[in-house]
Amino acid sequence: MKIFSGFPAGKLEVTPLPNLFFSELLPAIDDLAELKVTLHLFWLLAHRKTPYVRASELRADRTLLQSLAADAQPDQALARALERAVARGTLLQWNNAEETWYFMNTERGRRALENIEQEAPPRANLAPEPVPAQERPNIFTLYEQNIGLLTPMLVEELKEAEREYPDEWIADAIRLAVENNKRSWRYARKILERWKTEGRDARQKKKTWYDETYAPFVKR
User: Which of 82, 105, 134 is the last residue of a domain?
Assistant: First the structure.
């Protein structure tokens, strides 16, 4: 048994839990893996901008898998816990052609899921199984971490951009959008379109040419 050394002195970050969790949900949970996964999702969703967690993120989450290590097969324990939490109503689940997303059954989660479902294509056209985490393009995570909620419509736009532009261009365009306080894909896409038309270094070359040609004659 690993001995916990205690919480250190000073100000600590906290994760809020609704009182209903203790009065109604906790007494009803009879599976340890389900309890651990539920608490872990409360923690994840409390400290991120997006109101959902992707299944691939959970399968790659070392902290979560370590907490399930007592089970002979942590991956199966995770899948079972998620299934039970969804069946209990703690979590809301949504599938698209790429991934399975989980939302906490709170006002924020329900509203986000409703918005996504309004934009989503018919469920009959969606693949039933998520793509393994290693096959998912990094552009989705990049967008979520820097800009915000990823809707099905944006998924298609990002996939199209990934086919058209190098990964480095996309990452730099999103970074510039954040630096300029223009956190939107529309802004980042305009940057990519300009780079494609003018060349990525066109603006810097123009500035350098101007400085070298006219700077000596400009009054300081």
Answer: 134
Residue owning tokens 């070298």: 212
Rounded Cα distance between 42 and 90, Å, is 10
Three-state secondary structure call for residue 93? strand
As given in the structure block, the two tokens for residue 132 are 């393994």
Could you tell me if residue 68 is inside a domain? yes
Residue 176 shares a structural domain with residue 81: no
- pTM for this prediction: 0.57
Q: Which residues pair with 94 in a beta bridge?
A: 101
- Among 36, 33, 35, 44, smallest CA distance to 76 is for 33
How confident is the model over 114-137, as pLDDT tens digits? Answer: 998 887 654 434 343 443 444 444
Pure H helices in 31-132: 32-46, 55-59, 62-67, 74-88, 107-119
Number of structural domains, the chain? 2
- The Cα–Cα gap between 150 and 141 comes to 9
* Calpha distance 179→182 (Å, rounded): 8
State both tokens at 161. Answer: 């951009």
Tokens of 205: 């070359």
Provide the residue range defining the domain that includes 89: 20-134
Specify if 3 maps to a domain. Answer: no
